[in-house]
Write a structure and sequence with these properties.
The longest helix has 36 residues. The chain has two domains: 40 residues, no CATH class; 81 residues, no CATH class. 55% of the residues lie in helices and 0% in strands. The radius of gyration is 33 Å and the shape is elongated. By secondary structure, it is mainly α.
Amino acid sequence: MSLNDRLKGFNAPDYMGRSLRTMPTVPESADDNRSVIDGRQKRIIRVIEYILTILGWTYIAVYLTFIIYGAIASLAGLPIPHIRIYNSEMLSVTRELFRIWFTSILVIILVELCWKEYNRIRYGDLDRREMPADTTDEEMAAVFGITPGDVAILREQKIIEFNDNVI
């Protein structure tokens, strides 16, 4: 019997006051099209989305191509085209940004390596990779204030209810 069949006779209101008969149904299978969430988009929205995505990736590819060509051309002495913001000044600013990023990455790597070496020197003799021993029934009984026999019984049960906060 499916979940929907079991809920048909149950007419209690949910937390928003609606009857379960008016609530969306749970789909029985992946082929069931009565889903709670309808993720289908209109065709025009999908077409616009694809066009904008293609334009965005094309812009990124062209920009990166100009940056790479400009870096190579400035080193090799080749002519650099001047297209609006793409000129030799923009390439020098970009080259300076890359130099700053590269220097920052090197500094971060050096700091991390020094920190690693400091930790190895400071804490290298400690062997903390062992798991602690299993907790015994006596230790559990001492923490919860019960007998070790009760601990064994509680271990076998699926649901345990505590009347007092033991923490």
